[in-house]
Write a structure and sequence with these properties.
The chain contains 20 helices and no strands. By secondary structure, the protein is mainly alpha-helical. α13 crosses α15.
Length: 529
C-alpha cells in the first residue's frame, strides 16, 4: 500500500455500501446494513415472531383461567341461582380486567386505543355469556391489525369528516401551497379523488398516534406507501414512471402535513445524537484538508465556489420538510464535490476521492440536526428512492461519512495518539506549528507543498501584524506624552505670568464723604417779560 493510501485511512469498498443480504440494493447503517426492503422483511419477521409468542402466552393464560374456574366450580356444592349470578358477574369483571391488562402489556400501539366491537357482534354461548376464547382472539386481532385495515368505509368517511385538533389548527403558508398543488395535480388523474381521500384519512389517523415510537410511525408510513403503490400499479397497469410521479406528490403532501409530528419525535434520542455529532465536529475543527488527503485545491476560484455551494446545500437540508427535497440537497452537494475534484485533478473523480471530500465538507459545514435529518429520511422516504439511483448512493455515502466522523481516531489521520489527544483537547493545533515542522511535500503531493508555502506566508503576515501592533502602541505612547507636555507648558506660563484681575472703576464722587456740605443744585428760573 502506498504512503498516500496509508495516510488517508479512509477507504470504503463499494460493496460495503450495498445491502449485506446481497440483494444488490444500497444498504443503510440505520437499517443495520440492510436495504429498506430487506430491513422491512427482517422487521416483519421479528414482529410476527413476537406476535406469535404473545398470542401463545395469552392463550395459555386463558386456558389456566378456564381450568381454575372449572376446578372451583367442581369443588363447590350446588349454589343458589343468586349466588351463581353474582359469581358470574365477578368472573366476567375479572376476565375483562385481565384481558385489558394483557392488551396493554403486549400491544405496542395500545396507547392509541383499539376500536371496540359493537355489543351485538360479540360472540356468545348458549347461555348468553361471552365465550372467553373468542373474546380473547377478537381483542388480540384488534391489537395487531393496522387501524386502517379494521376501519370500514363508513368509519373512514367519519374519520375524514372529523379532523384532529392538530390538523384543524391554522396551517402554514407552505402547507397550504402544497395542498393546493396536490389537489391541482390530482385533477388530471382519474383516481385523484380516491387518492386524496386515502391521504386525508391516513393523515387524520396519524394525528392520533403521537405517542407511538419512531419505528412504529415509520412502519405506518411505509405500509401506506406500499398499499398506495400497489393500487396505483394496478390502475396504471405497470407504468412505473407514472406511479413514481404520483408517489412523489403523495409523499410531498403527507410528509409536509406530518412533519411537525414525526420529525425528531420526543420518543427518540435524535436530539441527543444531534448534540453529540455537533460537539464532535466542533472538537475536530483542527482537521485539515491535507490530513484527509482531499484532492481539492481551494486556491482555484472555481473550486472554491463549488466548495461553498456544497456547504450551502448540506446546511440547507435542514430547512426542507419532504424527504425527497432533503435528498435533493444531498445530491446537489455531492455533485458540487465531484465538480470540485474534477477541476482540481483535470479528470473525472473516483469514489475514493469523493468520500474523503464529503467528510471534509461535513466537518467544515457542521450541518444543524444532522442525525435527525438522516433518521427522518431513513424512516419516511419512499424506500425505492433509497435503494437505487444517485439519491440512494449519495445518501449512503453521507451515512458512511457521519459514521467515520463519529469513529475518527489518530490512525485514520496518520497521527500519533499523543498529538491527536492534544489537538482534541485544544492544547495545540497543527495550523499553529512552525513551518519547519511541515515537510515540503509529504506524500509527494504538490498540493501539500503549496500548503507549506502558505504557512510561510502566514508566518510572515504574523510578523507584520506584530510590527503594526508595536507601531500602534508607540503612537499611543507618543500621544500621551504630547498631551502631558502641553499641559505642563500651560501650567508654566500661568505660573510665570499670573493674571491680575482688577475691580471695575467707580464713579467720580463716589469717594467724596462730604456731600452734605455741597450747595444745592441750581434750579431753572422763569422770568416774565
Amino acid at each position: 500500500m502506498s504512503q498516500k493510501a496509508e495516510r488517508r485511512g479512509i477507504h470504503v469498498d463499494q460493496s460495503e455500501l450495498l445491502c449485506k443480504k446481497g440483494c444488490g440494493y444500497y444498504g443503510n447503517p440505520g437499517w443495520q446494513g440492510f436495504c429498506s426492503k430487506c430491513w422491512r422483511e427482517e422487521y416483519q419477521r421479528a414482529r410476527q415472531k413476537q406476535i406469535q409468542e404473545d398470542w401463545a402466552l395469552a392463550e395459555r393464560l386463558q386456558r389456566e383461567e378456564e381450568a381454575a374456574y372449572a376446578s372451583s366450580q367442581g369443588a363447590q356444592s350446588q349454589p343458589s341461582l343468586t349466588t351463581f349470578s353474582k359469581f358470574e358477574e365477578k368472573k366476567t369483571n375479572e376476565k375483562t380486567r385481565k384481558v385489558t391488562t394483557v392488551k396493554k402489556f403486549f400491544s405496542p400501539s395500545s396507547r392509541t386505543g383499539p376500536k371496540k366491537a359493537p355489543p351485538e357482534k360479540v360472540g356468545k354461548g348458549p347461555s348468553g355469556r361471552e365465550r372467553p376464547a373468542e373474546n380473547l382472539l377478537r381483542d388480540l386481532r384488534e391489537i395487531f391489525t393496522p387501524p386502517w385495515e379494521l376501519a370500514s368505509p363508513t368509519e373512514e368517511s367519519q374519520e375524514a369528516k372529523t379532523p384532529s385538533p392538530s390538523i384543524s389548527r391554522q396551517a402554514s403558508l407552505e402547507t397550504d401551497r402544497v395542498s393546493r398543488d396536490f389537489q391541482e395535480f390530482l385533477k388530471n388523474l382519474k383516481p385523484g379523488r380516491e387518492i386524496l381521500k386515502q391521504c386525508r384519512v391516513f393523515i387524520d389517523g396519524m394525528a392520533n398516534k403521537k405517542d407511538l415510537s419512531a419505528e412504529e410511525l415509520s412502519e405506518c408510513v411505509q405500509d401506506f406507501y406500499q398499499n398506495m403503490a400497489d393500487r396505483l400499479h394496478s390502475h396504471f397497469k405497470g407504468s412505473s414512471e407514472r406511479v413514481e410521479r404520483v408517489m412523489d406528490q403523495v409523499e410531498r403532501y403527507i410528509m409536509t402535513r406530518l412533519y411537525k409530528n414525526v420529525f425528531c419525535p420526543e420518543t427518540t434520542d435524535d436530539e441527543r445524537k444531534d448534540l453529540a455529532v455537533q460537539k464532535r465536529i466542533r472538537a475536530l475543527h483542527w482537521v485539515t484538508i491535507q490530513m484527509l488527503c482531499v484532492p481539492v485545491d481551494e486556491e482555484i476560484p472555481e473550486v472554491s465556489d463549488n466548495v461553498v455551494k456544497a456547504i450551502t446545500d448540506i446546511i440547507e437540508m435542514d430547512s426542507k420538510h419532504v424527504p425527497k427535497e432533503k435528498l435533493g440537497c444531498i445530491t446537489r452537494c455531492s455533485k458540487h464535490i465531484f465538480n470540485a475534484i474534477k477541476i482540481t485533478k483535470s479528470e473525472p473523480a473516483s469514489a475514493d476521492d469523493f468520500l474523503p471530500t464529503l467528510i471534509y465538507i461535513v466537518l467544515k459545514a457542521n450541518p444543524p440536526r444532522l442525525q435527525s435529518n438522516i433518521q427522518y429520511v431513513t424512516r419516511f422516504c419512499n424506500p425505492s428512492r433509497l435503494m437505487t439511483g444517485e439519491d440512494g448512493y449519495y445518501f449512503t455515502n453521507l451515512c458512511c461519512a457521519v459514521a467515520f466522523i463519529e469513529k475518527l481516531d489518530a490512525q485514520s489521520l496518520n497521527l500519533s495518539p499523543e498529538d491527536f489527544e492534544r489537538y482534541m483537547s485544544g492544547q495545540a493545533s497543527p495550523r499553529r506549528q512552525e513551518p519547519e515542522a511541515w515537510p515540503p511535500e509529504p506524500c509527494g503531493s504538490p498540493a501539500l507543498g503549496q500548503v507549506y508555502q502558505s504557512l510561510e506566508l502566514l508566518s510572515g503576515l504574523g510578523g507584520r501584524q506584530e510590527r503594526v501592533l508595536e507601531g500602534a502602541r508607540r503612537l499611543e505612547s507618543d500621544l500621551i506624552d504630547w498631551r502631558e507636555g502641553v499641559e505642563r507648558e500651560v501650567r508654566d506660563i500661568l505660573d510665570r505670568y499670573p493674571l491680575d484681575i482688577r475691580p471695575p472703576a467707580s464713579a467720580i464722587d463716589s469717594d467724596n464723604v462730604e456731600n452734605d456740605r455741597l450747595p444745592p443744585p441750581l434750579q431753572p428760573q422763569v422770568f416774565a417779560g
